[in-house]
Amino acid sequence: MTTSMASSSSALLSCSSNVVSSRRKNLTTTTSRHSRRGRQNVSVRAEIIETSPGLQELCKCEIPPHIGRVDFVKQMYRWADMTYTDGGLATFGKRMEISAINENQAGETNGYLISVFDFKDGEEQVVAELICQMDQTLIQTYDTILPPSKPGDIEGIKKMNRSGKDEFIEGEFFVISRKLPTDETVGSVLKVMIKRMMSAINAYYAFGSPFSEEF
Q: What integer pLDDT is reported at residue 15 of this predicted model?
């Protein structure tokens, strides 16, 4: 008997929130700013080069293979735009802007950059930047499970695809990092922002939409 793989949507995603040591990376990302309310598109570049202080990973969530990466990131971007761009000042006390990372011509992106602003020395400046994106790990996927010939024989379980080929998807974890240096006075704000984002990810996993966390 052939059984199709299925995963329960009632379980919640777990977040590994251990702060790891900062590391230097080569990362050049092309971004474009959008708005759901008709703001003009502005092409910008967000760059982290080897000579910069680097990135600090703050949190990451494992995204189950059955969740479509394109739809997940697209919905999380829309949720973040509404939550942080439109509601940043009222909810978190800081003005914020969001930019899509590595957006292609089809409008698909693997993440987004959140810039947090505050006034320092009499002028508004970027005091923190969060980079939220899928990693590039390749995950092997299966659409069929063959039960073992002997009951209880776990090693006898066979996984395969109907196509007969090995199939992979890109992205195992949704990773949230911050660019260094960061103004430490906004640490408590970033913590609340990330906690809210984790709630939205859990809502997407359970209900198919990050906006469900508001109900």
A: 55
